[in-house]
Amino acid sequence: MALAAVKLTDDQFKALRDVVYQRSGIWFADNKRYVLESRLARRLQELELDDFGQYVTLLSMGPYREDEFQEMFNRITINETSFFRNAPQLDVFEKKFLPKLLEARKTTRRLRIWSAACSTGEEPYTLAIQIHRTLGIRMADWHVEILGSDISERVLMTAQTGRYTDYSVRSMDSMITRRYFTQDGSMYQLDPTIMSMVNFERINLKDAYAAKRHGVFDVIFCRNVIIYFDQKMRDGCLKLFHDMLSDDGVLMIGHSETIREPHLYSPVAETQAFAYTKAKRSV
């Protein structure tokens, strides 16, 4: 079957788009139709399916629909990430927010961070490195929990190996690379101490009840994710983060994203922060 022959009809596109949205909250607008068509054409060939209608049926009623949804999701999403991505924002986290949180929690010596939609793990591991070098010899006295989550099991499996290509570490200072990685050809293996600071779990942000069982976090990172949601999913996601954020915690989002929910969040007046705190309740 030639790839060029597989085309999405209007009805098939709407049906496929609905399946993706119902399962993940990601919305493909009409002008993104080509993304689904181009990225899934080869999958139809691999499954020996004649058209996208059969594929929607497989995703909806097939005995392996859960496995196939994971495969489909891996193909239609771009997991673009790297260590110390958007360094100015991370500098604000390390130099401004982190010291304040550590001071506020000096009695309990417990810090909890959630990296939502973390892809292959570079973001939560970056945060672990920042915390490790900030605490230094005090690290042994603290209980630091970092949760990295994603909807894709495949990217989480990569994250759990702690093994990355030179592309993933391209933005890092060479001193950090030498300190926290062991190079093996073009691959870099992360230090086990840093790896032990992060736990990974598959979490669908559409499932608020499942997410909330992880409790409250002092910092939540969710960068460059909500831009893919429609308004309903976006509102639900921001409410979820609000419920799971400590009263003095910080939500950090992507540089191309903005939150306009004054009843929930107040922007942090810090250049390059792209951060929000919980809105103060009026008395």
What is the strand tally?
10
Instruction: Estimate the strand proportion.
Output: 15-25%
Envelope shape: globular
Q: H/E element string?
A: HHHHHEHEHEHEEHEHEHEEE
Textual characterization of the structure:
The protein is α/β, with parallel strands linked by helices and about 280 residues long. It has two domains: about 5-75, Chemotaxis Receptor Methyltransferase Cher, domain 1; about 85-280, Rossmann fold (3-Layer(aba) Sandwich), CATH 3.40.50. Helices cover about 45% and strands about 20% of the residues. It has eleven helices and ten strands. Helix 1 packs parallel to helix 3, helix 3 (about 50-60) packs across helix 4 and helix 5 packs across helix 6. The radius of gyration is 20 Å and the shape is globular.
Map the helices and strands:
Elements: H1 10-24, H2 33-47, H3 52-61, H4 65-76, H5 87-104, E1 110-115, H6 122-135, E2 143-150, H7 153-161, E3 163-165, H8 174-180, E4 181-184, E5 187-190, H9 192-195, E6 198-202, H10 208-212, E7 217-222, H11 231-244, E8 245-253, E9 265-267, E10 275-278
Parallel strand pairs: 1-2, 1-7, 2-6, 7-8
Antiparallel strand pairs: 3-5, 4-5, 8-10, 9-10
